[in-house]
Specification:
The chain is 49% helix and 7% strand. The protein has 395 residues and is an alpha/beta fold. It has two domains: 196 residues, Rossmann fold; 125 residues. Strand 3, helix 5 and strand 4 form a beta-alpha-beta unit. Helix 7 crosses helix 8, helix 11 packs antiparallel against helix 16 and helix 12 packs antiparallel against helix 15. The protein is elongated and about 70 Å long. The N terminus is likely disordered.
Length: 395
């Protein structure tokens, strides 16, 4: 299998960023819940949209933002009445008849690409929308690992202004669990004293990483991974040069995340997985020559993406092993019986506690390596040494 011939990057055309993506697949229930809340007149001021990376959370947030901003005069074109208190909602109390709800095959929150609101949101030029996401470092050009407090401070100024179009203001944060502690505390102040006619849509990859006080002030919207048939159809749409077998295999490896599937395809993930799996399946007797060959390959200059792919695949495999030996249904997400059987066989060689320890050790190693630029080859070798010792039940 070779890399996809087209550049697969869901952050660039023709794989549009969430703010530019008019389509969302597999999340009709989440869209309907947001729309019903919007139309009920009892809309909460902050929504925590959580779930795994790459399943469409930010795309949903921007779809909902466009819907809100396209109703600047209020539901059914009635003026918006600011509520007397938070419990009364933000959008007035009038219910919308069922026949007035959007009817479209593209989802209940769909808004066409040619509409002025869509185009202004896509370009970042809508005066009533404020977006926060990780930025690129001016010196290195690399994407920053966190969202800083300076980015979040702008929310207060934005929300202090009168809506430019007579409706309300919308803030989208992608993602809230990528904020550093100072930024999280700055956001908390906004959530504690929300202004009228404002809504915050907080995308979150892992809500366990959030301050409990932030979680408690939001309405939760938990989004599920996509099913495999949906992922396959999206792979065929965004990477049509991949054959059907590769598309199915990618769908099995990505745990319901189209973003992960496309990233794996771009990084040559199936070839890297084949090499990695061969090493894992031989535990506790790892082929030293093959291991050094893989470690050399992913540690070369310019191979950072391959390194990230291999370390991610190993951690994914180890998480699956822990699920298998703890009696959880890893097979439903992986759908590769041979891998599940292999995990069960290797997992039985040590206690569950030992595998948890190894999982934590490897995650800490990868995190530290990324933070202080440890030698990538040595990191890969250390990962497999930890796995080998566990499989041998060696301390």
């Amino acid at each position: 299998m070779v890399k996809s011939k087209k550049p697969i990057d869901i952050e660039s055309e023709p794989y549009p960023r969430p703010r530019k993506n008019p389509f969302l697949t597999g999340h009709d229930d989440a869209e309907k819940k947001l729309l019903e809340s919007f139309n009920s007149g009892r809309m909460h001021h902050a929504w925590l949209i959580s779930g795994p990376r790459g399943i469409g959370k930010a795309t949903l947030a921007y779809r909902f933002a466009r819907h809100i901003l396209s109703h600047g005069e209020g539901v059914n074109n009635q003026p918006i009445v600011a509520p007397p208190d938070l419990g009364a909602g933000l959008f007035g109390a009038e219910d919308v008849p069922e026949e007035n709800l959007p009817q479209t095959d593209n989802g209940p929150l769909y808004l066409g690409e040619n509409t002025p609101v869509f185009q202004r949101v896509a370009s970042g030029g809508h005066a009533d929308l404020f977006s926060i996401e990780r930025r690129h470092d001016e010196k290195s050009g690399k994407l920053k690992t966190v969202i800083g407090v300076d980015d979040v401070r702008g929310i207060g100024h934005f929300l202090s202004m009168t809506p430019a179009e007579g409706g309300w203001r919308v803030v989208v944060v992608d993602a809230v669990d990528e904020m550093n502690p100072n930024a999280a505390n700055a956001l908390l102040k906004v959530l504690e004293e929300p202004p009228s006619r404002a809504i915050l849509l907080l995308v979150c990859h892992n809500s366990a990483n959030l301050l409990p006080t932030i979680r408690s002030r939001c309405t939760k919207m938990a989004m599920r991974p996509l099913n495999q048939s949906t992922v396959i159809s999206l792979i065929e749409k965004y990477a049509p040069d991949l054959n059907s077998g590769d598309a199915r295999h990618l769908a099995q490896l990505c745990d319901g995340s189209i973003g992960r599937a496309l990233n794996l395809a771009e990084a040559g993930g199936l070839d890297l997985w084949k090499e990695t799996r061969n090493l894992l399946s031989s535990l506790p007797g790892v082929d030293v020559r093959a291991l050094h060959s893989l470690a050399e390959k992913v540690s070369r200059a310019g191979a950072e993406e391959s390194y990230n792919t291999v370390t991610s695949l190993v951690r994914w495999w180890l998480e699956g092993l822990i699920l298998v030996i703890s009696g959880k249904d890893a097979g439903s997400s992986m759908a590769i019986k041979e891998d599940v059987d292999m995990m069960a066989s290797i997992g039985a060689k040590a206690s569950l506690d030992r595998w948890f320890y190894v999982w934590e050790k490897i995650n800490n190693l990868v995190f530290r390596a990324n933070a202080v630029n440890l030698d990538r080859k040595q990191v890969v070798l250390d990962i497999f040494l930890s796995l080998e010792n566990a499989a041998k039940n060696v301390k």
